[in-house]
Each structure stands twice: as C-alpha cells, then as structure tokens.
Amino acid sequence: MSRIYSLAYLTSHRCTPPEVIRIAAACGYTYASLRLWPNAPGGPQQHLLSQPDVLRETVAAQNDTGVGLLDLELIRINADFNPHTWDALYDAGAALKAKAILVAGDDPDEIRLTDNYARLCEVMQPYGMTADLEFMPWTAVPDAKAALRIVTNAGRPANAGILVDALHFGRSTSTLDDIRAIPRELLHYAQLCDATTAAQIGRPFTVDEMIHTARCERLLPGEGGIDVKGLFSALPADLPVSVEVVNFEREKAMRPLAWARECLQISRHFLEPQT
Fold this sequence. Notes:
Blueprint: E1 5-7, H1 17-27, E2 31-35, H2 52-65, E3 68-77, H3 87-96, E4 100-105, H4 110-124, E5 130-134, H5 144-153, E6 160-165, H6 166-171, H7 176-180, E7 190-192, H8 198-201, H9 207-216, H10 228-234, E8 241-243, H11 248-251, H12 256-271
Parallel strand pairs: 1-2, 1-8, 2-3, 3-4, 4-5, 5-6, 6-7, 7-8
Helix pairs in contact: 1-2, 1-12
C-alpha cells in the first residue's frame, strides 16, 4: 500500500502559506500543514490570519495544485484556556478545508486540562476539524498513555484525536504496546522524523535539549536511534504521514524546495523501501 504524505510546518518553516502548498505539489506531497498560530508569544509562525489576500492566494494554490491541508498549528491548553481565543484559526481552517488542528497540553491540573480539551472539541466540531492532542515528554501530556487517558476521560468526542510524533515517542516512556492501544478512530495522522536517543548518549536528555531537537535539529528517518520502523509498523498502514524534519544547519545549504523533496524521498524510501 502506497502511503499518503504531508509536508509538515517544520519542514517548510521558511515558506509563506501559498509557497508551502506549491512546494508540496512540486515534490509530490498530497497534503501540507501550516503554523498560523505561534507555539509561544512571539514565536515563529506563518502569517495568514487577518490577511485576506494571503488566504485567497493560499486557497488559489490549493485549487491549482490539488494539495490539501492536513493540519494547522497550534492550540495550547493551559490553566487560563479559553477555546474562543482561536476563533480566527477555526475560520481559517474551515476556509482552507483543514482536517485537524494540533493541540498541546500544558496545564498540570489534569482534570481541568481534560475538561478544557472536551470544551475545545465542542467548539471545533462545527468547523469540521479534529482536535489532535500531541503527547510531548516535557509537557503535561508526556506520553501516549496520558494522551489516551485525557481523551477517554473527556468522553471521546467525535472529533477527538491523538497525534503520535516519532521524536516524542522515542524520547518519552511510551512503548509500542501503548501505541497499539490507541483506538484507530483517534488516529488521523502521525509525524515522521528521527533523532538520537538517550541510550546513544548515555544519559537522559534535559528539557532544553528535547525542545532544541524538536524545534531545530531533527534527523531524517534512519539517521538516528529511534525505532521508527517499529513505530510505523504499530500504526495503521493507511495513516497519513506528516514528514516533520527541521534541521537548521543542514537547511542552510538547501533551498526550501530541495529540502522538502529530499525529506519526502528519504521518508518514502524508509517506509516503502520497494518504491
């Protein structure tokens, strides 16, 4: 079975939204993703919200190329969470026909986090997108078990989801059995990359090191020590694969199109060696 691939935001972070769509098409990706909301105040993002010209150009690029939008980034649930903070993001997602919004959990009060996740799903439901909760080892949702517990305790809304990122799988306490335990209906896509492991460096990673790798220094699949093949064998074979490889040093020598193409070619060969 041939897999479906998406050009993740971090792989194309140097590009504007319409450029992302056109680069994805040129390389052979079926989908792309955009970060229209920064991961922290003042953080990196692609500018489209409140810019109708950019939205129109992005939709035009989609119509021209047939590239869909897999997901938007991102919503962060903290102690002061209000789901209507992101109303503009929902509107943009609907206009772009996005399938999902990536959600991070940063509230240490798990009961409140769970309640707010349920509220988010309810607010997002009319927009036709899923709310995919990503586990990350330095957050309040540190592993796959925590993500499944929160989504389950939230009542498993119809548009609930769990996002599995190979990097966070490899650096959390999650096991392949934990991944297999996630119900199929909660899986909408997974993110592909590689990285060194704690076993390779002989000590646990600090939080700062984990964040640095996630945002600046990922490896292509097969270059690190994460059991990426095992992970994607444990995930459904028809699950869309978001190729998420950011590496600032290596990108310096390549234009965004060339980097996106190399990431797809290596990812496809890694997961589908016969192609």
